[in-house]
Design a protein that fits this description.
Chain lengths: 683, 205
């Protein structure tokens, strides 16, 4: 008889997203029938986004990978189903062969990113570490410049609880569109508005969030630092700064004043495209309507001056004393709750002869580094949590570099463009079929993920794959791999916690997370003790560390004039609500929304270029060209174009344009993806 | 030939055909050597009901043109249609034909499971493998066919399940097949299902 009762299990959305929602899975007859938000999650409070509510269609998607498959020749589409034993034997055999050929593991490379943010999804990194020194994609395409900027200014990455916004008088949503990309935040923002806060959105695009704000200030892309400088000058000239705060809690105010004073207000206004009235408005809000809560999005730091943009706003908040007090602060992203031991990464070879560590291949310049490193060359590439081919710059160079691989293995849920270019694809479980732990880079809650249903067909968790591979290697050659093949999932979870972490979560055992997510005991207001982790112990308006890293010691600067005459338009890559880059693309109902890639341009530009709405146009730059449908939008200005980067088309135009920062924290400079200069023409 | 002889001979052929399709969808034929294909063809040529049907004859004709070169793309095409890793071009799952998202493991899957339970049967790795994969449905039909007493259940299962979606399945095979063998089996299934439908209608159940 079919069962009439259902079980409820806890899950976490592991996507690269602010909310890291805790979810409840309802299972009946070993079938997941419903997914809801978890009301015990203190930030998301039982709500999911459109993507989250659609997980059943993702989990039971007809096209999910079902079996290990081998393709020969690579890219031919000629796939054979193979057993896990055959897959693992083939991979292990190659690992051993390459080790003996090169007397090192450097010909093995791992390229993993944020397709799944779970702690146990570090299994493949742990496996690679357990072999010895291997090659690894190092860096970050998302938040690298901002992370360095925050570090230079404050010395650590903290955010306030979102409830803190309820104490704000002024809220500045700077380059962030939470209506589309962080929906849970909106309830807090609306509540703050109800309590009297004024919401200002500063953005190059009149976003859905801007439409719900009290004030919208449309700036030119990348000019965030310029507008911050103009506001700082105004504040300085009109004594709107918080002298007491500056004296007590900042380092370098005197130097910064001297630096700012001679800079031209006119030039700053011209660069950001504002009037002095707009500058006065922001300055007075920051100086007179405190506390001011500023939320910085990730797009504004994906510029060549991206780190400087973030530092400029940090400085603005510090100058007006809007840091460390309830309802204030500059929110970007945090890592203070990530208190896991990450022991999963630390099962290193006991053989001291084997070198440990990684040979770094720049994440954002991967194609180049793959070709450059020849001693020994990379011959084996493992790709996981990553759609490398659609989410990289220099696609043609990358494809060429991949041709010299002798084995490419991709772990996936679907046959992505990257998986299509692999020799072996291994089917991975989803968060409804495996154990995991997930923290957030935004809020302060930790959630556990438990399995609800059996793995779809023959899919396996990355942890299980790592264990199988390690076991097989050691059967081939004793002590070849140090990654433990005999630990259970629960044992791996257990070793991620310390007594201190338990105390911080106010639990005695990780299994208590099965009753509900827990908040990590960090201050509710970032920097409330006003004890900063910088060398001076203060907010560094003048950063010696930045200076030592060949950067300006000051965050504030005017832009270099880098606009190209041939490519006068800036193409922004703004996320939309139904997909995260190439994830969630293949849900039939979502395919009904924005059925084909489109470029959004202002009607005045369209008129100038003779482009009709809905027509195909050519977009080109020095890296390539694409044909795409044009849509009119009055949400962008004349020189700005917008595209939603949920399809691989745009990558044909992208190269690696290093941002100013990123190396210090993430190991590589960010890619200035929003400095994409293009030209357009009608067809 | 009296009426009962026709029925008996039909049952044998039906059993054979269901078994053949079961092996086919389970992937057992993917590694069949060329010589064995010849033997299979000989057997198919002797199936009277199949030969009496346009689609059956078309299928046999296709297979008669088979060469060793035809065998090579068979596995790749079989995977393109029914296994993956690509977007499945002719889904072998009942439920995927019944909902907008085309997902597996839906209400139909449970209804099929319920049928199996009623007969005391269960799919291995239940919950991981959808119960309404054509391979399992065919195996279940074979189970029901083996006993005269289960005739009613058999007809009910055919009407409520396999016959409801298999035409769409065959149409997709016809549309997307790139191999002589997968196309031949698509024709053969289509023809066989026509025979099954007429048999059920004839029996008035």
């Amino acid at each position: 008889m079919l069962d009439q009762t259902y079980s409820i299990t806890r899950h976490v959305c592991p996507r690269n997203c602010y909310s890291s929602c805790s979810m409840l899975g309802y299972t009946k007859n070993r079938r997941l029938i419903k997914v809801t938000g978890d009301p015990k999650h203190g930030y998301t409070k039982g709500l999911l986004c459109a993507k989250g509510y659609n997980y059943i269609n993702n989990v039971y998607h007809l096209d999910r990978l079902k079996y290990p498959m081998r393709q020969y020749p690579r890219g031919s589409g000629q796939w054979q189903r193979i057993s896990w034993t055959e897959a693992i034997d083939t991979i292990a055999g190659k690992v051993i062969e390459l080790y003996h050929r090169y007397d090192s593991h450097l010909s093995l490379a791992l390229n993993k990113y944020s397709g799944n943010m779970g702690v146990l999804h570090h299994a493949m990194e742990g496996f690679f570490n357990g072999l010895g020194r291997t090659s690894r994609a190092v860096g970050n395409p998302c938040w690298a410049p901002g992370m360095d900027a925050i570090y230079y200014d404050y010395g650590e990455h903290q955010t306030s609880d979102m409830e803190d916004i309820l104490h704000a008088e002024t809220i500045i949503l700077w380059g962030i569109n939470p209506v589309w990309t962080s929906i849970h935040a909106m309830n807090y923002i609306y509540e703050a508005q109800k309590r009297g806060a004024k919401v200002i959105t500063i953005d190059p695009v009149y976003t859905e969030t801007a439409k719900k704000s009290d004030t919208f200030i449309q700036i030119k892309p990348g000019s965030d630092g310029a507008i911050a400088l103009a506001v700082a000058k105004y504040i300085l000239e009109h004594n709107l700064y918080d002298a007491e705060f500056l004296t007590a809690h900042t380092n370098g105010w005197g130097e910064l004043q001297e630096y700012i004073q001679p800079l031209s207000m006119e030039e700053a206004l011209q660069q950001c495209g504002q009037t002095i009235e707009a500058i006065q408005f922001i300055a007075e809000r920051l100086g007179r309507n405190k506390p001011a809560y500023i939320w910085l999005g990730f797009g504004m730091q994906r510029h060549q001056n991206g780190g400087q943009n973030i530092r400029a706003v940090n400085a603005l908040a510090a100058i007006t004393g809007n840091i460390g007090r309830k309802g204030s602060g500059v929110q970007f992203g945090q890592r203070t709750t990530w208190k896991f031991t990450y022991n999963i990464l630390n099962h290193l070879p006991s053989d001291n002869q084997k070198a440990a560590g990684v040979r770094a291949l720049d994440f954002n310049n991967f194609a180049n580094d793959l070709q450059m490193q020849q001693d020994p060359p990379v011959k084996f590439l493992w790709i996981t949590c990553r759609n490398l081919i659609t989410q990289s710059a220099n696609i043609q160079q990358l494809k060429k570099a991949l041709q010299s691989m002798e084995l490419i293995v991709t772990v996936e849920h679907f046959l992505t463009e990257t998986a299509q270019y692999s020799d072996i694809v291994l089917p991975a479980t989803t968060q409804f079929e495996e154990w995991d732990l997930v923290a957030s880079y935004w809020h302060h809650w930790i959630s556990i993920n438990q399995p609800a249903i059996p793995p779809y067909f023959e899919s396996k968790s990355e942890l299980e794959i790592a264990r199988m591979l390690s076991k097989r290697l050691n059967e081939f050659e004793a002590d070849f791999s140090a990654f433990p093949s005999d630990f259970t999932d629960e044992e791996f979870i257990e070793q991620e916690f310390t007594d201190e972490f338990y105390q911080s979560l106010q639990i005695g055992d990780w299994r208590e997370l099965l009753k509900g997510p827990r908040r990590v005991d960090v201050p509710k207001t970032a920097w409330e003790a006003l004890e900063f982790k910088t060398p001076s112990g203060k907010i560094e308006l003048f950063s010696q560390q930045a200076s030592e890293n060949q950067l300006s010691p000051f965050g504030m600067a005017l832009l270099d004039n880098r606009k190209s005459e041939n490519y006068p338009f800036t193409l922004l890559l703004n996320h939309e609500p139904f997909r995260i880059n190439s994830q969630f693309q293949n849900l039939p109902s979502y395919k009904q929304i924005n059925k084909e890639p489109s470029i959004y341009l202002h009607p005045s530009l369209a008129k100038e270029k003779g482009i009709r709405a809905g027509s195909l146009i050519r977009i080109f730059n020095e890296n390539g060209e694409i044909m795409i449908r044009a849509r009119y939008s009055e949400e962008v200005n004349h020189h700005t174009l917008v595209i939603h980067p949920n399809h691989p088309l745009i990558n044909k135009l992208l190269a690696f344009t290093p941002a100013d920062m990123g190396e210090f924290i993430t190991g590589g400079k960010g890619n200035a993806l929003n400095d994409l200069q293009v030209n357009i023409a009608k067809l | 030939m009296n009426h009962s002889e026709i029925k008996h001979s039909c049952l044998e052929e039906r059993m054979f055909m269901y078994q053949l399709f079961l092996h086919y969808y389970r992937g057992d034929l993917l590694k069949l050597p060329a010589a064995e294909w010849g033997k299979l063809l000989e057997i198919l040529e002797c199936q009277p009901a199949l030969q009496s049907n346009d689609w059956g004859r078309k299928a046999v004709l296709q297979l008669q043109n088979m060469t060793t070169q035809t065998l090579e793309p068979f596995e790749y095409d079989f995977n393109r249609l029914f296994v993956g890793p690509n977007k499945l071009l002719a889904s072998p799952f009942e439920s995927s034909y019944q909902n907008f998202e085309g997902t597996v493991m839906q209400a139909e899957t449970l209804k099929v499971r319920n049928f199996y339970y009623y007969e005391g049967l269960q799919v291995a790795n239940e919950g991981g493998l959808p119960d309404d994969h054509i391979q399992f449905e065919l195996e279940f039909i074979l189970h029901l066919l083996s006993s005269e007493k289960k005739k009613e259940a058999l007809h009910l299962f055919l009407e409520k399940h396999l016959l409801k979606w298999v035409d769409q399945h065959c149409a997709r095979i016809e549309e997307h097949s790139q191999s002589l063998i997968t196309l031949a089996f698509g024709y053969m299934l289509k023809g066989f299902i026509l025979l099954e439908k007429s048999l059920i209608e004839g029996e008035g159940l």
